[in-house]
Write a structure and sequence with these properties.
The chain has about 230 residues and is mainly alpha-helical. About 55% of the residues lie in helices and about 10% in strands. It has eleven helices and four strands. A two-stranded antiparallel sheet has the order 1-2. The protein has a two-stranded antiparallel sheet with strand order 3-4. The chain starts with a strand and ends in a 5-residue tail after the last helix.
């Protein structure tokens, strides 16, 4: 079974392609996390066993924390990944591609009980196979997806130029065109860059030549937040 791709557009006009993880890597990540928790329990049981009855209460608290808070803590504070997910190159995100928060992480992990039924995540597997992005019940309720970790998107490097804001409204297509120009123009000859810059006089207030190029650079720096 092939993993699918979820396409998300961010407010910064960055197109993200989130590669959703299927049942096999997620099961391996869960197994690794289970082994880690089991090792912690064994070591803690040996150490706390010396405390007698008080140790029993501490073990119950530790078991509860490892079972229910362990995944939430790592998903929220460790970039969406428990140690098992990190080892498999996975992470949890909101369905819009933003980092997962406390509420969503708590919801998806509390609903592991429903996903586990009738045994060994039977319902969870059925829902994952029925949904395009392999989302179990907890993911559907919490609005989350499990995806492969990708390198952070990089905004184009824009040459130095004074900030420029045209008086015409900028559609998303125009903003994308300006950013593409700013990224590629430095690799073009000056004549070709000036020729392209003069194609959109509404963005440069009719400027010509090098001035038009500089104005598009300045606009790109405003769009990327480098100049205000």
């Amino acid at each position: 079974m092939l993993d699918t791709v979820r396409e998300v557009s961010t407010p910064e006009l960055i197109e993200l392609r989130l590669h959703c993880a299927g049942p096999v890597p997620r099961a391996l990540a869960w197994l690794l996390d289970t082994l880690i928790r089991g090792c912690v329990i064994i070591v803690a049981n040996i150490a706390i066993g010396l405390l007698g009855r008080a140790g029993g209460g501490i073990m119950l608290i530790l078991w509860f924390a490892l079972e229910w808070l362990y995944p939430v803590f790592f998903e929220v504070l460790a970039s969406g990944a428990t140690p098992g997910k990190r080892a498999l190159g996975l992470c949890v995100l909101h369905e819009d591609g933003s980092p997962v928060g406390w509420g969503a992480s708590l919801s998806r992990n509390l609903l592991r009980t429903a996903d586990f039924l009738p045994f060994l995540y039977g319902f969870g597997l059925v829902f994952m196979l029925m949904t395009r992005e392999f989302r179990r019940i907890g993911d559907l309720v919490a609005g989350t997806v499990v995806v492969y970790r990708m390198p952070p998107a990089q905004l184009p490097e824009v040459p130095e130029a004074p900030a420029w804001r045209p008086k015409v409204p900028l559609t998303r297509a125009l903003q994308q065109a300006v950013l593409a120009f700013a990224e590629r123009a430095p690799r073009l000859s000056p004549e070709r860059a000036e020729e392209l810059a003069e194609i959109a006089p509404q963005l440069t207030a009719g400027a010509q030549g090098r001035t038009a190029v500089q104005r598009l650079y300045g606009l790109a720096r405003v769009l990327t937040g480098e100049t205000r």
